[in-house]
Amino acid sequence: MKKIKINLRGFPGWHTECVVMSAKKLGVPFDIHCGGVDHILIHHTNEIAQAEAAFGKILAKFWLHGEFMLVEGEKMAKSKGNIFLVEDLLKKGFNPLAYRLLCLCCHYRSKLNFSWKCLEASQNALDNLYEKVGEMEIESRKQKIENRRIKDYKEKFLNFINDDLDTPKALALMWQVVKDKKLKMEDKRRLLLDFDRVFGLNLAKVKKLKIPQKIKELVKIREKYRKEGNWQKADEMRRKIKNLGYQIEDTKEGPKIKPSSENLTAAAK
């Protein structure tokens, strides 16, 4: 293609910068171009025009424009003081992937309303998922013949993702897999790891956590206090166990030991 030399003063606009960087790093055309809905009218329209004029090709095959994120029902703005960074989530003890999970729960074409309460619910859901995955075992070296049930789940997942990136339905399908009593644990894990190639929640890194013997001994002591009716001592023991990174859930079958969010996050690194 003939090169055209144009002498201009100043610097290129950001439309041109984006086209040049995209072409250099990804080639033309590349698969997916993302951005906010506010980029449609001016920025992306200019990118398309400039790329087609320069290369005679479309710049990207698919354009995904995400809606705005609200904070407690209001538009995010510096003037309102409601702009948060990932660093702010870390300071409050949240796993950044809990925010990713929160975003996946909302379709990209819909506004996402951020609140600390919603993020806390998302963190609890992520902890639950890590705990479930950690309980699943997989024989990684053995190739299993996929049954029809597994194939159906994979086909449904692919259909949801290909249907305008419908991540909320894909997530609902993921939880359906977790609760499916007809699937073997190793098959569940394989499916979840396959789904996670899209979700990016680090499920492949989740390891089964072993409860330390010290924690088990403390739980026994707490149970002794409970049977004696010494609720004050039992509560003190619960707090001590919590400070060590574990929680106690009292069930009909006896106390169940659950790792804290910090331990579950560490198990996925």
Write structural notes for this entry.
The chain has 269 residues and is α/β, with parallel strands linked by helices. It has three domains: 14-66, no CATH class; 68-208, Cysteine-tRNA ligase, C-terminal anti-codon recognition domain (Four Helix Bundle (Hemerythrin (Met), subunit A)), CATH 1.20.120.1910; 213-266, no CATH class. Helices cover 53% and strands 13% of the residues. The protein has eleven helices and seven strands. The chain has helices at residues 14-26, 40-55, 86-91, 96-104, 116-135, 148-162, 167-179, 185-199, 213-228, 231-243, 261-266, and strands at residues 30-36, 60-66, 69-71, 74-75, 112-114, 246-251, 254-259. The chain has a three-stranded mixed beta sheet with strand order 4-3-5. The chain has a two-stranded parallel ribbon with strand order 1-2. A hairpin with a 2-residue loop joins strand 3 (69-71) and strand 4 (74-75). Helix 6 packs antiparallel against helix 7 (167-179), helix 6 packs parallel to helix 8 and helix 7 (167-179) packs antiparallel against helix 8 (185-199). The model has no long low-confidence stretch (mean pLDDT 88).
Structural domain tally: 3
Strand order of the largest sheet: 4-3-5
The chain-level structural class is alpha/beta
Main beta sheet strand tally, sense and closure: 3 strands, mixed
Question: Termini, distance in Å?
Answer: 48 Å
CATH fold-level label of the largest domain = Four Helix Bundle (Hemerythrin (Met), subunit A)
SS summary, helix count? 11
Beta-strand content bin: 5-15%
Radius of gyration: 25 Å
In total, the number of strands is 7
Give unreliable regions as ranges: none
Helix proportion range: 40-55%
Query: What is the architecture of the largest domain at the second tier of CATH?
Result: Up-down Bundle
CATH class (first level) name of the largest domain: Mainly Alpha
Q: Averaged pLDDT, please? A: 88
The best one-word shape is elongated
